[in-house]
Amino acid sequence: MSEPILSLRELSVSVETREGPRALVDRVSFDLEPGEILGLVGESGSGKSVTCRALIRLLPSSSLSVTGGSILSRGEEVLTMDDRRLRRLRGGTIGMIFQNPTSHLDPVMTIGDQIMESVRFHRSVGKKDARARAIEVLTQVGIPDPVHRLTNFPHEFSGGMRQRAMIAVALACDPEVLIADEPTTALDVTVQAQILRLLMDLRDRDGLSIILITHDLGIVAQSCDGVAVMYGGRICERGPMRTILGDAKHPYTAGLIACQPGEAPKGQPVRTIPGQPPTVGAMPSGCRFHPRCANARAACSETQPAMVALAPDHDLACHYPLGASEGGPRA
Amino acid sequence: MKAARSTLARGGWRLSFGGGSLPLYLGMGILGIWFLVALLAPVIAPYDPILQDATARISPPSLEHLFGTDNFGRDILSRVIWGARVDLQICVFGVIFPFLIGTFVGGLAGFFGGWMDNLFMRLIDIVLAFPFLVLMLAIIAILGPGLGSFYLAMALVGWVSYARLIRAQFLVLKNADFVQAAVSLGYGPIRVMVRHLLPNAILGSVVFSMSDAVLVLLNGAAISYLGLGVQPPTAEWGIMIAEGQSFISTAWWITAVPGFAIVSLAMGFSLLADGLGELLGVKE
């Protein structure tokens, strides 16, 4: 296997509260291989967005801070990078797109200017070359009539077009990694499919590696190669998409899959996982999922399950994985 | 042509002039006329504005002197026309310097916050603690009368409104999603501020500056009236009113004509401010 393009090791992010620091993201590790689409799945508040923002040190508030671990971009440590290098990394190596394209594009700047600004910031090219690149990248993301669209403002675009435009801005400098934070949540279903198709094309054609943050397992099934499932700031299971969706070992993963509307037998209500996801102030002890887990036993509330490899590429953190024989907790 | 479009400033806001309102057009019209008058003063003024004519002192409006003459026999019409140059200059410079200083200071305070914000905000409190005109008069009295002193005093006192406006905008906008997106592209704080925050934040200040121009104009006239601004015999509307006030019961035209000039110019700015605010969706 080739060297991962991005590698997280034991990354922790804490929030400063009145009762002291609390971990929002707790020792999260995963690798992103070149050309891979990695799905980062979890409920709201599971720490998936914070993890990804920490990747380019773009934590949304000053009360959040990275408290441990390491992030390696092609072997280079991101957390200790100086400002100059960090600015090159952001946009140049790692691009980011967001959930709501409307609010993430500068409303008083034309699409063309926004793309050209990024190009000229990261590469020393003239106006002409930047403009050519802007047209190229708009074509790449499937915006018709790009020459004319350059002079449009974001409000003159439709929702799906804005998402394409935001992807174009992020791609303008040819990043190796694209972090897509719920890129399709704000879009209607048909446009969703188009944007996913676009992301997959970019991977197939240009070898882009993508981290796709989502809570929609349907999207994962359509587009991802690998999946990491997050719960309460920790990764509880990770592996190839087919393994995770077809043979989930963690009760939480299995619960998420069972919650899909299509999974319920005809005439039966859609299943849910009982209870609420934990909040920062009230993280359960031991395995964070145990209050909501049907398989939970005494050990689950006492000790945190360690991440173990079930297969070379399938890792799990659970004392009593699904399908395992009865017995005492695994060591 | 569908809708005439013009590009304002580098940020590239497009004002579609098809969508403007009556106050906007009226304001632009009035200001346009005054700018033309100021520009063409040497051509359209019938007399030399400081030429005294002892044979025609305090003569009422007639065909020879459309708006009459003052107590030195100077043609009022010519003086009002030439005065437009001075008064427009007062409006422009009296607004630009506070605008620039205030935007700079307010931007820094709003963006960086912390001690910088505290320092500048306390400074603003100090300036605001004194009545506006009193502080202006004090500064001009120290510097000595003249237009230069007036602009300097204006800049020292007037920047606080702009600083507070921009700071408030920056405080809101610096957490906006598109600013986060700009940071995620690797842009440093200066670029984010100048290229992304400022063009979004400045609309309110532009609209405010138009109504501020009214106050500056009245201040300029008041300062000249008190003898601390423009010095005689230069034609300036405030001075003209000051000079005419002793004849107000016998020769109304000496004060009334420059008075109307001030009112119309102020109204032009005021209407333009209303129209711009409406067009750009800015609430004052």
Protein model, in words:
The complex is a heterodimer of chains A (331) and B (284). Chain A is an alpha/beta fold and 331 residues long. Chain A has a domain at 6-232: 3-Layer(aba) Sandwich (Rossmann fold). Chain A has twelve helices and twelve strands. In chain A, the strands form two sheets. Chain A has an eight-stranded mixed beta sheet, sandwiched between helices. A four-stranded antiparallel beta sheet of chain A has the order 2-1-4-5. In chain A, strand 7 (177-181), helix 8 (189-206) and strand 8 (209-214) form a beta-alpha-beta unit. In chain A, helix 4 crosses helix 5 (127-140), helix 4 runs parallel beside helix 7 and helix 5 (127-140) crosses helix 7. The longest helix of chain A is centred in the middle third of the chain and has 18 residues, at 189-206. The two termini of chain A are 29 Å apart. By secondary structure, chain B is mainly alpha-helical. Chain B has one domain: MetI-like fold (Orthogonal Bundle). Helices cover 68% and strands 3% of the residues of chain B. Chain B has eleven helices and two strands, in the order E-E-H-H-H-H-H-H-H-H-H-H-H. Chain B has a two-stranded antiparallel sheet with strand order 1-2. In chain B, helix 1 crosses helix 11, helix 4 packs across helix 6 (147-173) and helix 6 (147-173) runs antiparallel to helix 9. The longest helix of chain B has 37 residues, at 76-112. Chain B is elongated and about 75 Å long. Mean pLDDT of chain B is 85; it is low at 1-16. Chains A and B meet through helix 2, helix 4 and helix 7 of A and helix 7 and helix 8 of B.
The 3D shape of chain A can be described as globular
Shape of chain B: elongated
CATH superfamily of the domain at 6-232 in chain A: P-loop containing nucleotide triphosphate hydrolases
Largest interface: A-B, 32 and 21 residues
CATH class value of chain B = Mainly Alpha
DSSP strand content of chain A: 15-25%
Backbone CA Rg of chain A: 21 Å
Order of strands, main sheet of chain B, comes to 1-2
Query: How many strands of chain B?
Result: 2
- Overall pLDDT of chain B, averaged? 85
Q: Helicity of chain A, in percent?
A: 25-40%
Report the sheet with the most strands of chain B, covering strand number, pairing sense and barrel closure.
2 strands, antiparallel
Structural class of chain B: mainly alpha
CATH domain fold name of the domain at 6-232 in chain A: Rossmann fold
CATH class (first level) name of the domain at 6-232 in chain A: Alpha Beta
CATH topology of chain B: MetI-like fold
Low-pLDDT stretches of chain A are 326-331
| Overall tally of structural domains of chain B | 1
User: What's the SSE pattern of chain B?
Assistant: EEHHHHHHHHHHH
Overall residue-averaged pLDDT value of chain A:
87
